[in-house]
Design goal:
- The chain is α+β, with helices and mostly antiparallel strands.
- Helices cover 47% and strands 19% of the residues.
- It is built from 20 helices and 20 strands.
- The protein is flat, with a radius of gyration of 37 Å.
- The N and C termini lie far apart (106 Å).
- Interacts with UvrB in an incision complex.
- It is found in: Cytoplasm.
- Keywords: Coiled coil, Cytoplasm, DNA damage, DNA excision, DNA repair, Excision nuclease, SOS response.
């Protein structure tokens, strides 16, 4: 049986139920794991139409066999897909990046529980809160807890029998007021567990109950005239309220909610997760997802939600999202448009953006090749190119009031200036200030030479100017037979519009876009390079004309004098004997007389 016949048979056997499908190659290696609402429709779509993206076409060619697992609901398919991707690591599935162990806050399963941070989860009945993405958050919480509640830090077995037998003696912590001495029976188990319950609520972000308890304590001490104790409790209330003011970022009525947003570029997606409890952010984490098959933001966000809720054991029954995606069945989806809910969604998106910026800065230093590849992929997409613009050339004309018209060509390779390839052009065939004709000339001269010398041609040409200059450059490419073989665009200065050949409507790139920044850098560099050459040429022309205006001094004599004396100032200051030694007695007298009237 041929491969195509075998696949047709496998496709026809697929059910119309929700489930997870797996693609394998001829060697039995896993290629891809996907989920579907309708297995038959989804899997058949890979083979029934021409795939838009190259990577997907390559995947489809490699598929030799298909396996599937039927599940009751689409949300079950989500969870199963996520687990299988992590277990099987298929080549064409997205890559989730951050496989590290996170810190937890542990309330130990003991008669008088200790509270501490740990990275190891031991299944001994202890309670674990987290994981937290920052050790700083854990330390801040533990410092807050220790400042409010005196807890033991020793690891003694404080069983009732051993305490009654007087086996332990209080340590320095007791004398410093950091522990109330349960080891000698100075603190009851009930009182200690009351503190632990308050600590649970603080870790969950609910500070309201603790504040109310302390306020009642303060009132009781005040009524008993125990003002020192009342003041100590008041200090604790101040600490809690100060912490609450810092941590509460939204309406305290927003409780037990997960917030997810996504920022993406050509190669990666960044899903941010905020967990909200009593108006406070108790967790923030950004997941980096490497794309493999040009996945959409919806697909990446769906995968990110499933992964993060599983990883952080979230039981929240409501999620805030920027757009609708399928989540677990018993979870309510809210798409905030304004107010406190919208503000928290914006905060999550801002976190994702900052995370991406930090990652890009790190990558630029540690992995410049990946940084370059990402920018090239972004430019290819933004400018609708057929290939990555690894070699770009930009042209700019320079003339001031029609004098000394020149042009410049700057070259960028892999998004960086290649200064050894920069070229200047003196305009030869154009009379007067005619930018369009000048552009036509230099583009023709540049690429005629590259073709003659069989040098590599650029993937992209950038013309500094609007539709007029772009049309002039296109004429030269037409004559050379290069039109359609090299992508060409024009950039107008006023609003940074990008013009394409035969398209009257310009493209406006995002002002923060890296593609626009590269084009602007090209344009500015071409302008700087052209202006410098123009000034040098104009300056030399002015110097030469000052000498040529002297009776008996021609172009050759002027050049000889400049070669000998380096500047007009030195020629003016030179003695008659020195000038005679350079250009002869007759010319020397005329030059000396001119500068010493």
């Amino acid at each position: 049986m041929s491969k195509s016949t075998s696949l047709k048979v496998q496709l026809s056997a697929l059910p119309n139920n929700p489930g997870v499908y797996q693609f394998y190659d001829a060697d039995g290696k896993i290629l891809y794991v996907g989920k579907a609402k309708d297995l038959k429709k989804r899997v058949s779509s890979y083979f029934n139409k021409k795939q838009e993206y190259g990577k997907t076409r390559v995947l489809v060619k490699k598929i030799d066999s298909i396996k599937h697992i039927v599940v009751p609901t689409e949300s079950d398919a989500l969870l199963l897909e996520n687990n299988l991707i992590k277990k099987l690591l298929p080549r064409y599935n997205v890559l989730l990046k951050d496989d590290k162990s996170y810190p937890w806050i542990c309330i130990k399963n003991e008669r008088f529980p200790r509270v501490f941070s740990t990275r190891k989860l031991i299944k001994d009945g202890s309670e674990y809160f987290g994981p937290y993405t920052s050790m700083k958050t854990v330390r801040t919480l533990l410092d807050l807890i220790k400042s409010l509640y005196p807890l033991r830090t020793c690891n003694y077995d404080l069983s009732e029998e051993k305490i009654d037998a007087g086996k332990y003696k209080v340590c320095l912590d007791y004398h410093l007021g950091n522990c109330l001495g349960p080891c000698e029976g100075f603190q009851t188990e009930k009182e200690y567990h009351g503190q632990i319950e308050d600590i649970r609520q603080i870790i969950k972000g609910n500070l309201k109950d603790s504040i109310q308890t302390f306020k009642q304590q303060m009132k009781d001490y005040a009524e008993k005239m125990e003002f020192e104790k009342a003041q100590k409790v008041k200090d604790k209330i101040d600490v809690l309220e100060n912490y609450q003011a810092k941590s509460t970022v939204v309406n305290p009525k927003i409780n037990n909610v997960d917030v997810f947003t996504i920022i993406s570029d050509e190669t990666h997606g960044y899903v941010n997760f905020l967990q909200i409890s009593h108006g406070a952010i108790i967790r923030s984490h950004t997941l980096e997802i490497k794309k493999k098959l040009d996945e959409t933001d919806e697909e990446l966000l769906q995968l990110g939600i499933t992964e993060l809720r599983q990883r952080f054991n979230s039981a929240s029954k409501e999620v805030y999202l920027p757009f609708p995606v399928t989540v677990e069945e018993d979870v309510r989806v809210t798409l905030p448009k304004l107010g406190d809910k919208r503000r928290i969604l914006d905060l999550s998106e801002r976190n994702a953006k900052f995370y991406r910026q930090d990652r890009l800065k790190q990558i630029k230093i540690t992995d410049p090749d990946r940084h370059t590849k990402r920018i090239m992929a972004q430019m290819k997409s933004d400018l609708r190119l057929s290939e990555e613009p690894r070699h770009i050339e930009c042209f700019d004309n320079s003339n001031i009031q029609g004098s000394n018209p020149v042009a410049a060509c700057v070259v960028f390779k892999d998004g960086k200036p290649s200064k050894k390839d920069y070229r200047h052009f003196n305009i030869k065939t154009v009379e007067g200030p005619d930018d369009f004709a000048s552009m036509e000339e230099v583009v023709f001269r540049r690429y005629k030479r590259l073709l003659a010398e069989e040098e590599p041609l650029p993937q992209l040409i950038v013309i500094d100017g609007g539709k007029g200059q772009l049309s002039s450059a296109l004429k030269s490419l037409e004559v050379l037979g290069l039109r359609g073989k090299i992508a060409i665009i024009g950039i107008a200065k006023r609003l940074e519009e990008i013009y394409f050949p035969d398209d009257p409507v310009p493209l406006y790139l995002d002002k923060r876009s890296e593609s626009l920044k590269i084009i602007q850098q090209l344009r500015n560099e071409a302008h700087r390079f052209g202006i410098t050459h123009h000034r040098n040429k104009r300056s030399k022309g002015a110097i030469s004309s000052e000498l040529v205006n002297i009776d008996g001094v021609g172009e050759k004599t002027a050049q000889q004098l400049l070669k000998s004396f380096k500047s007009v100032k030195r020629i003016k200051e030179a003695s008659l004997e020195t000038l005679t030694a350079s250009v002869g007695a007759s010319k020397a007298k005329k030059i000396y007389k001119t500068f010493h009237k």
